[in-house]
Amino acid sequence: MANTTSQPEQPKRLNDLRSMMAQQGIDAWIIPSSDAHNSEYVASHWEGRAWLSGFTGSAGTVVVTQDKAALWTDGRYFLQAEEQLMGTGIELMKDGQPDVPTMAEWLTSEVKEKGVVGFDGAVLNLNTVRTLENKLAEKSISLKGDQDLLDQIWSDRPSLPAEPVINHELFYAGKSISEKLTNVRELMAIKKVSDLLITTLDDIAWLFNLRGSDIECNPVFLAYAMVSQDAVTLFTDSSRITSEAMQSLNDSKVSLEAYDDIFKHLSALSEPTTLLINPASTSYKLASVIPENINKIEDRLPTTNLKAIKNSTEIERMKDCHRRDGVAMVRFIRWLETNIPTGKLDEVNIDEQLVQFRAEAPEFKGVSFPAIVGYAGHGAIIHYRADKDSAYNVKEKGLLLIDSGGQYPDGTTDITRTFACGELTEEEKRDYTLVMKSHIAMASAKFKAGTIGMQLDAITRQPMWAEGMDYNHGTGHGVGFFLNVHEGPMSVSPKLIEVALKPGMVITNEPGVYRSNKHGIRLENIMLVAEYVKNDFGNFHQLELLTMAPFDTKPLLVEMLTEPEKLWLNNYHQNVFEELSPLLSSEDKDWLQQKTMAL
Fold it and tell me: Looking at domain 312-587, which of 3.20.20.30, 3.90.230.10, 3.40.630.10, 3.40.50.2300 is its CATH number?
C-alpha cells in the first residue's frame, strides 16, 4: 500500500480533468478500475483510476464533477481507501453499506437535467452502461463514451504492453487447442450461435494454450478472439508469439490478426450471423461497432464455464504444484519463527524472503498477486500492501497475517496463514479460534449437487454468526490453472451468483476476523470440489484439500474446538506431513513433525 500521507498531485490532476470536461461540455466523468477486457488486475496503461485518485486497490470507481469527486469501493478496501484518499478532495463511498448511494444514484442527484456523463467506452462494459442509462434517463442525462480524456492529461502514461507469448504445453494443459475448440463449438451449437466473441484474457489464454506477462502476476496477454464453426481468429500482436507457440496455433488452424483489427472484423459481420457475447465483459466501445441487424445472444461465455472445471491432468499437476509451494511455505515459516526474536523483521523484508523461498523452485514463474503481509493493526486492512514508508516492525507479541501465492506452469497458489509472534491477548486467541472453526466448517461440508456458493458461505460463517461476528469479504473464489488467482464464474460469498459448485472446480476457503487498529486474522486453503456419494437422495459433493502447509496452533483455544473439529485439524496436519516430508531436508522435516503433532 502506498504512503498514506496527503498526495498533492491528486488535486492538480483532478483540476486538469475538470478543465478537459469543461471544454467538452461534460458534467461528470467516470473512471473504473478495469481495462478493455474487464480484467480485475490491469496493465499500468489502464491504471487511470489509481493515477487520478491515489487509491491503489484493485477494485473501485471514481466519478468527478466540476465541484465534487467520489470513489466507490467494497469492504475489502474501506480502511485502505480512507487512508489513501486523505487530502485528495475525493469522498469515499462505502459500496453496499446502508445509506450509501450507488454511483448511478449519486450521478442522478449531482448532474443537472439533460446533463452529460462521459467515460472511456473501452473500459466500461455493456451491462454497466445499460444500468447507468436506465437510471440517468430519469433526468434525461445522456452518456458519451467515444473518447478517453485521461489520454489528454496523463503525459507520461505507460504504453500498451507487448511481452512475449509462450506455449502452455499439453503436459500441463491436458487438452489440445483443437479439443478445446471442439468443446466450445458443441456448446455454441446448443446455444444456436454461429459466432463467439471472447474478450476476457484468461479465457483466451486457456483456449489457445498460451501464456503471457502483460499484466503483473497474471500470465495473460492482450488479445481478442472470434470463434465460428469453421474458423477461429486470434487478435494480438503476432510478432511477440514464440516460434513454438506459433507452430501450435498453425497446427490448430488458428488465424492471426492485429489486436485492433477486432473492431474492423466485428463491424463487417453480416446476416445471418448469430453472435454470442457476454455483456458483463464486452466493452461499450466494442459492442457499439457490431451492426444492428446482427442477431446477438447475451450469456456467459462457454470458455468461462469449461475453464472453471479442471480436467484430470490439470488436477494431478495442481497437486504437484501445491506440494512444491508447501515446501516453500514450510521453509519460510521455520525461518520466520527463528527470526522474529531478532527484532529485525518488518513487513517488507518478510515479503521479500517469502518470494526468495518460492523462487528456489526452478518452476517458479512469479507471485500470483502482491503479498499481503500485515502485522498487528495492518492485518485488519484486508488488502494491505506494505512499503518501506508504511511497514511495521514485527515484535514478539501479537499476530502477523500473510496472504501470498505463486505462479507455476502446473498451477496457481493462494494461501493465507496467521502467526502468533509472541504473547497474545485472550481476544486474539478467541478470534483466531473462531476463524479456524469457520474454516473447518467449510472444509468439512458435504453438499448436494446444485449447491451454489452463497449456501456454502452461510455454512462457513455460522460459527462466527453464533458469536455476533462477521467479515466483510467473500469466503472464497475460483482459482485459475497458471492463470488468474481470481477466476469465475463460481464464488463463495453472500452474493447471489447462480453458478452451481461442480466437481473439478477449484475454490478458496478463507474466512477472517478484522479489528481496526488491532489485528487481522485469515486462514486460507485452496480446495477441489469432488464427488462424495450418489444415492437415492441424489448426488452429493465434498471438498478435497490442495493447499499443503501447517496452521499455527499456538493461538488456538483448544477448549473451544469440538471433537470433530480437532479431528479435522489433526488429520489435515498428518496429511501435510505425509505429503511434504519426503521433499524436505532432515532439519525441515523434524521441524514440520513438531508443527503437525496432534492436538
Answer: 3.90.230.10
